[in-house]
Specification:
By secondary structure, the chain is of the alpha+beta class. 42% of the residues lie in helices and 19% in strands. It is built from 5 helices and 5 strands, in the order αβαββααββα. The strands form 2 sheets. Strands 1-2-3 form a 3-stranded mixed beta sheet.
Length: 149
């Protein structure tokens, strides 16, 4: 099932919470904030400029497995250089494709270069399941004669 719904609709439904951290912050501070907010990623912002995305995967692969100390390492030290982002006009389907192609689980949403949200693979899957459920319900109503043709 294709979804031509723009990400702006998903963000509107999801809410406007946007969590970020400075590149100078420690990895420990980032992990603590993610735990407090029950989220899997943070935008790394230098002022209004997006410089990266910090994720739980970054912590496990670039900190824990390499024996680095989270209270001594700054977030900037373990960021990858590549930022994959989308605009509010990108569709759910386009975002899923970008995530798959780039092997990322979180996409910052930028509107004219300004961060306005983040979508996760979980957000996209939940949106898709809800859309499919709504379509199935409509079809069932139509078949049962509840909706006029």
């Amino acid at each position: 099932m294709k979804s031509s719904v723009p990400i702006s609709a998903l963000l509107h439904h999801k809410g406007a919470a946007l969590w970020s951290i400075a590149p100078e912050a420690t990895v420990f501070e980032a992990i603590q904030l993610m735990a407090d907010k029950n989220i899997g990623s943070l935008l790394v912002m230098s002022g209004d400029r997006l410089v990266g995305v910090f994720t739980e995967r970054d912590y496990t692969r670039k900190m824990a497995l390499q024996g680095k100390r989270s209270k001594e390492t700054q977030v900037r030290e373990i960021l990858s250089g590549k930022i994959v982002s989308v605009t509010p006009q990108h569709t759910v389907e386009e975002c899923m494709r970008l995530m798959t192609e780039n092997r990322v689980r979180h996409l910052p949403v930028l509107d004219n270069g300004k961060a306005v949200g983040v979508v996760s693979i979980g957000d996209l899957v939940n949106w898709t399941i809800s859309a499919q459920d709504a379509t199935i319900a409509q079809m069932e109503q139509y078949i049962a004669g509840g909706v006029s043709a």
